[in-house]
Amino acid sequence: MPRWPIVMNFKTNLKAMRVRAGLTQLEMAQKAGVSFRTYQNWETGAREPRLQALIALASAFDVTVDQLLQSSGLVTAARSAPGTSPR
Predict the structure, then answer these.
(1) Which domains does the chain have, with CATH numbers?
(2) How many Cα atoms sit within 13 Å of 7 on the Cβ side?
(3) N or C: which end of the chain has fewer CB within 10 A?
(4) The whole model's pTM is what?
């Protein structure tokens, strides 16, 4: 399977989750413990985060790493109930 569908889902999910949380890219970068530029590169698809960063992002959004990488519709459904995170 080509690598690009995963990147497309990830960057789409990352931005959607950040916007839903009401955070700027800078605020999310700080929450994830990375520079603004690093976070921006993830959200635009220019770079991919390492596993530890994926784990930190998932934790910040209260989702699993799998959910970060899934298609947008699945993540939206998973996040529709506040405070819940199917694992």
Answers:
(1) 4-78 (1.10.260.40)
(2) 13
(3) N
(4) 0.71
